[in-house]
Each structure stands twice: as structure tokens, then as C-alpha cells.
Amino acid sequence: MELYPAIDLRGGRCVRLLQGQFDAETVYSDDPVQVALRWQAEGARWLHVVDLDGAREGTPRQLDILDRIVDAVRIPVQFGGGLRDEQAVRKAFEAGAERVVLGSVAIVAPEFAQRMFADWGERIALGVDVRHGKVAVHGWQEQTEIHALELIREMVQRGARRVIVTDISRDGTLQGPNLELMATLVRDAGVPIIASGGVSTPDDLLALKKTGVEGAIIGKALFTGDISLPEALEKVG
After folding, report:
1. Choosing from 129, 167, 171, 204, which is the catalytic residue?
2. Which CATH number is 185's domain given?
3. Which domain holds residue 26?
């Protein structure tokens, strides 16, 4: 199982939100590049970078920081946040992202998402943010009535090859991941699943691995010290 240390960017700083709430922010570093270098030094094989401002505003706001992170590290970077048109996707790749994540646009412009899946193949992942089984969009600010599996199945038919699933109700809480949701999606989605939200202990990672997910994104637990990245990689990587 691949582990993805998360670097969430807001206003140029490395932050964590609680359950996707922008007014519940904790700043962990003013230097995201140093954070990226730290995770690389501790053994990370990938980084997961999210532009929270971009996700909220609908267009990338921190591609300059992505560019600096990519220049500094030797490992691939997965990037998402505000990628809702072809120009934004192209700019993210030009800034050095190895894989980009399409989220809200899959609902509002499914034909565009389909075209991106066709054009970029494995380098595009679908990002699905879930609250109580249903999809949230636009930086988690808007709740839909669309069930996660329903959206994933449609996008797989349109060419999605990998899905990153974030359980918003668990994100930033250190309450443990939603194992039932992840196991269901692994069983029924038909494509690899990367899990995000709630990971707080090495045992959480072992439990996620048993569900069959391809990877897990770790955020707050790395910053608080609840998880040691080298130990986690040794355990499940």
C-alpha cells in the first residue's frame, strides 16, 4: 500500500482543516517546501499536495508553490485543488505534477472530465469528497445528494482509472478512517482506491490495507507525531 504524506496549502502555508471547515484551520508550517523535503527524507515515495484556496475559488492559486516543491524533491507529486478547466490542468502538469486530481468538475462538467481521462490516462485521478456517503463539492462547501459509488461508477465508465476518496467527516479528526466505506468502494468501484481522512495510528493503516485500498493519504497525524512516517512505511509500504 502506497502512503501519501499530505501538504495542504492555504495562503502559502502548510495547514490542516478540521472536517473541511475553513474557519477551523491549524497552521503547521510557513514553509511547504521544507515540509516536502522532510517527508522525502523520511522515506516518502509520493507527496499529495492540495491547493485549498484553489478548491474553494475554483481555480489554482498556488501553482508557484507546487513548482517550488517539485523542483526541491526527487519524488512524484500528486496535486489537486481548483482544476476545473483544461488550462488549469495543463498548468499543473507544467508546474511539475506527476498526477492531478479532478474533483468537483466531474459533477458539473462530466464530459470535460471524460476528455481529460482520455488525454492523460493514468496521470489523472478522480477525487471524491464524501460526507455521510454523499458527495460534497467546491472545496467541501456544498453538499450534493449524489452517492459516492454512483459518481465513481459513472466516472469509471467515462475513463477514470484511479479514485481518491476523502471522508470529510473524518478528515483532520484523528478518529480513524471509514473502513466500511473504503471496503465497499474497493469491492464495487472496479478501479484502485486511495483512502483519505481520519488516519491517526499505524493500526489504522494496517486496517486500511486489509480493505484492499491501493494507497492512503496521511495528514494531521504526521504533524502531531501520532504517526512516524518511517515506521508506517516499514509496516505497510
Report:
1. 129
2. 3.20.20.70
3. 2-236
